[in-house]
Amino acid sequence: MNFSPAQRREIQSIVALMGANRRGIISSYHPSPPMVKVQIMPAPPESSGPPPETGWIPYKSWATGLGGVGWCVVAPPQIGQQVMLICEEADGQNYTAWGGYFSDVDKAPQGANPGEILLQHQSGSQLYLKEDGTILLTAANVVVNGDMSVSGTISAADVLVAGNISSKNHQHISEAAGTSTTAPIAGL
Q1: Quick one: average pLDDT of 79-94?
Q2: Per-residue pLDDT, 17
């Protein structure tokens, strides 16, 4: 059967989108529920115009927790992030977007070894779960909302402050020589 060049392009375009996992670039993000639109890459052969874009499709989470109860992971994707489009039900229009790819543009953080997990933000903040059981947290500021219990030693390279009392620079008052001093004075 002989097809015209226009018919061949149309057939190639349809075949390229049918039932195959593809790569794509996130073009839009909707937070609740997490959904994305993805430009399918590469564009079908000899197509003109921008690459085809999916409608709103699910974005795969690492863990969702049944009914929002239990452990969940929310890591919203960024516009421009490369993802894998997993084809469902052999339907080239029914995809789920999964993960991302490291590339020359999206470089992987360095330092993690097999068996370790490294979460890193563009600011440089890190949560690093090391293979030896150590958890390394690196950030400009760490905020803990709630009580914290420590069953070991707390060490600080600088000053510890508790209840507005410095562990290094605080004063006590004594009524007279040889008498007990007061508790540390806040704010000094």
Answers
A1: 81
A2: 59
Q: Which residues contact 108 (CB under 8 A, 6 or more apart)?
A: 102
Question: Counting Cβ atoms within 10 Å, is residue 73 exposed (0-12), middle (13-18) or buried (19+)?
Answer: exposed
pLDDT at 68: 62
Does residue 146 register a pLDDT over 70? yes
Which positions ≥6 away from 40 have C-beta within 8 Å?
17, 22, 24, 51, 52, 53, 54, 85
pTM of the model: 0.62
Q: What is the side-by-side order of every strand in the sheet holding 126-129?
A: 117-120, 126-129, 135-138
Q: Where in the chain is the domain with CATH 2.40.50.230?
A: 1-108
184 contact partners, CB below 8 Å, separation of at least 6: 165, 170, 171, 172
| 89: exposed, middle or buried (Cβ count in 10 Å: 0-12, 13-18, 19+) | exposed
How far apart CA 17 and CA 33 sit, in angstroms, is: 25
Q: Across residues 151-180, what is the average pLDDT?
A: 75
- Give the pLDDT confidence score for residue 108 in this predicted structure: 81
Report how far residue 184's alpha carbon sits from residue 188's, in angstroms, rounded to the nearest whole number: 9
Place of tokens 């070894």: 113
Query: What CATH number has the domain spanning 1-108?
Result: 2.40.50.230
> Tokens 């600088």, residue?
158
